């Protein structure tokens, strides 16, 4: 099985050429329990998503649960829970009464083929500025090239930190939707493989190891303790 992830700190990212982050540590702990050593490839999200939607026996993480993705993948998790927010620069005094109001107030920065782009397109937004990665989208907000940046509360602070920018440089103008993050297995992945990962994730949570990993990366946040398999049912 091929494993793909992206640069989306602190959930998944690379440090000195090696994958790390909350979900990377969870995946590595599952691999250890299963006696597996597949390399985790950190790639642009669009590339990983393309592989996971076209090649069997691929696992892409982390993937937000949506109705569309339940038709494309077998999802195991969740491994993290967050909230997707529309962010503006701190000095911006804009207030939104409803999400649709953001259609009238300038460009919204998202990155390619992500849940952020897909969600807004389903809502009829055509004022999207699409970047190849979340760091580029954040830079555009900070430079005033877009009015909004759409990302998760789990990752926005770490992305700003990586850009050497304080979190006080931006503020949330609207909490838009929950972001439940899963491990996504591509169509054609054997049922036995998915069951072994489900059982290992459950054991990881029951042992307390998952909670220790989660709170090391997201101090003060409550970890999701259930484990479910949704989406395509493997054969």
UniProtKB/TrEMBL annotation:
What is the recorded name of this protein? ABC transporter substrate-binding protein
Q: Which domain of life is it from?
A: Bacteria
Solute-binding protein family 3/N-terminal domain sequence ranges: 6-218
Report the source organism. Leeia aquatica
Q: Which InterPro entries match?
A: Solute-binding_3/MltF_N
Q: Sorted alphabetically, which Pfam families does this protein's record hold?
A: SBP_bac_3
């Amino acid at each position: 099985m091929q494993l793909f992830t992206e640069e989306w700190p602190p959930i998944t990212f690379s440090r000195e050429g090696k994958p790390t982050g909350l979900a990377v540590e969870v995946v590595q702990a599952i691999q250890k329990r299963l006696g597996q050593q597949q390399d985790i490839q950190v790639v642009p999200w669009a590339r990983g998503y393309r592989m996971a939607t076209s090649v069997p026996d691929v696992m892409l993480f982390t993937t937000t649960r949506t109705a569309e993705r339940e038709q494309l993948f077998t999802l195991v998790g969740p491994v993290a829970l967050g909230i997707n927010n529309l962010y503006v620069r701190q000095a911006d005094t804009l207030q939104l009464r409803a999400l649709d109001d953001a259609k009238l107030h300038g460009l919204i920065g998202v990155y390619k083929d992500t849940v952020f782009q897909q969600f807004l397109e389903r809502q009829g937004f055509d004022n999207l500025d699409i970047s190849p990665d979340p760091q580029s989208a954040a830079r555009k907000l900070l430079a005033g090239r877009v009015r909004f940046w759409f990302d998760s509360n789990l990752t926005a602070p770490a992305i700003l930190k990586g850009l050497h920018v304080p979190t006080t440089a931006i503020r949330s103008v609207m909490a838009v939707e929950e972001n439940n993050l899963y491990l996504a297995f591509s169509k054609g992945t054997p049922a036995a493989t998915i069951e072994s990962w489900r059982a290992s994730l459950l054991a990881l949570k029951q042992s307390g190891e998952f909670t220790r990993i989660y709170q090391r990366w997201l101090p003060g946040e409550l970890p999701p303790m259930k484990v479910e398999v949704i989406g395509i049912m493997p054969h």
